[in-house]
Amino acid sequence: MVKRKKRKKSTAKKSAAKKKRWSQNVTENSDALTLDRGVFTKGSPKAIAASLKRSAERSRRRKASPYRSAMSMLTFFINRGGKGLPASRKQKLEKAKDELRAMYGKD
Q1: Which residues, other chains included, contact 64 with Cβ-Cβ below 8 Å and sequence gap of 6+?
Q2: Cα separation of 59 and 100, whole Å?
Q3: How far apart are the first and last CA of the chain?
Q4: What's the confidence (pLDDT) of residue 32?
Q5: At 51, is the pLDDT very low, low, confident or very high (cuts 50, 70, 90)?
Q6: What is the 3-state secondary structure (H, E, C) of the chain?
Q7: Rounded to whole angstroms, how far apart are CA atoms 99 and 50?
Q8: Are 73 and 33 within 8 A, CB to CB?
């Protein structure tokens, strides 16, 4: 009789939970910016961009330029939403990127 080694259980669940926690941790404890509450749910793309710009310029904890920090936070939020983000909301956030570029003169 040949003895077989026991296989460990799949780590897929563990890694999925870790990724979820990592994303949540970034959102809650990031040193990049301190965002206004509900910034990504504001009515217009211009309001979202203005709030991100204001937060980026006030922050003293960021490592990159204000423009880069604001754009990174917006991109992170869009990517985090993934397929679950409604098309209309994603379109509004993409327009907010364009507004942010215009505010910083990065056309």
Answers
A1: 32, 72
A2: 17
A3: 72
A4: 63
A5: very high
A6: CCCCCCCCCCCHHHHHHHHHHHHHHHHHHCCCCCCCCCHHHCCCHHHHHHHHHHHHHHCCCCCCCHHHHHHHHHHHHHHHHHHHCCHHHHHHHHHHHHHHHHHCCCC
A7: 8
A8: yes
Residue 4 has what pLDDT?
Answer: 73
26 or 96: which carries more pLDDT confidence?
96
Half-sphere exposure at residue 17, Cβ-oriented, CA atoms within 13 angstroms:
5
pTM, two decimal places: 0.70
Q: List the one residue out of 91, 5, 104, 7 whose CA is nearest residue 49.
A: 104
Interatomic CA distance for residues 75 and 104, integer angstroms: 16
- Residues 78 and 31: beta-carbon distance below 8 Å: no
The answer, yes or no, to whether residue 60 has pLDDT greater than 60, is yes
